[in-house]
Amino acid sequence: MQAAYVLHSRPYLETSGIVDLFTLEQGKVSVVAKGLRRPTSKLRGVMQPFVPLHVHWRGKQPLKSLLVAEATGLNGIIQGSALMCGLYINELLQRLLVPHEPVPRLYVYYQYVLNALVAGDDVEGALRTFEHKLLSEIGYALPIDTVLANQLYYFDPPSWSFEAVTSIDEDLRHSVFSGQQLLDIADDCYETPAQRSAAKRLMRLAIDHLTADRPLQSRRLFKKQ
CA nearest 205: which of 146, 144, 142, 126? Predict the structure, then answer.
């Protein structure tokens, strides 16, 4: 049995479903849940986003066959804007994780951000921390180690680098950060509105670059609210 959460599910054949799981030991794993969409299926109430699970599957192919899924607790009710945030982080994981590549530290940060969404405590700070850790864990750590606090920097997503600049071009203002802002992000310090605004801009630039082939659906839900 492995600890897991449901990221996304979609119909498969007449009554089954394909479920993308985020697991502690193997990262993202896709499984076939037979009979998932039957009205009498016990899995329907269990295989839901944000519910901590223990699961067991079998199969040597990339798409596994789910054998067992048991809820190990409830994170609580997530609704409203918190639900939108939860769907957003699930979509990030579904889109950016490499299948069967363990990221156990990210799994812990995922639990952390879910707890923040349930409690409603510093949700924005929790989201920025999760985005930051996600980038690091999938091999896209932000190169902030040589940044100087009193210098201005332009973030260039294609080269994944910060370039020192002496002034702010109006056309590039959205991509320019002070060194102190970047150092605050490196420390996951999001206490002030200015720090949060800078972190949100930077994470949006980085994530938009990594998902450029297909915009995030969860962002569209935010705009409709």
Answer: 142
- Which whole number is the average pLDDT over 33-50? 91
How big is the chain, counted in residues?
225
Query: Strand pairing partners for 33?
Result: 17
pLDDT (0 to 100) of residue 121: 78
Backbone angles phi, psi at 28, to 5 degrees: -85, 130
Query: Is 90 in contact with 7 (CB distance < 8 Å)?
Result: yes
pLDDT for 180-191, tens place per residue? 999 999 999 999
Strand partners, 9: 19
For residues 116 and 112, give the distance between their C-alpha atoms in angstroms, rounded to a whole number: 6
Q: Which of 114, 109, 157 is nearest to 133 (CA)?
A: 109
Q: Please, what are the domains in the chain?
A: 2-71 (2.40.50.140), 80-224 (1.20.1440.120)
- Alpha-carbon separation of residue 194 from 165, 171, 177, 188 (angstroms): 20, 20, 11, 13
Q: What is the pTM of this model?
A: 0.91
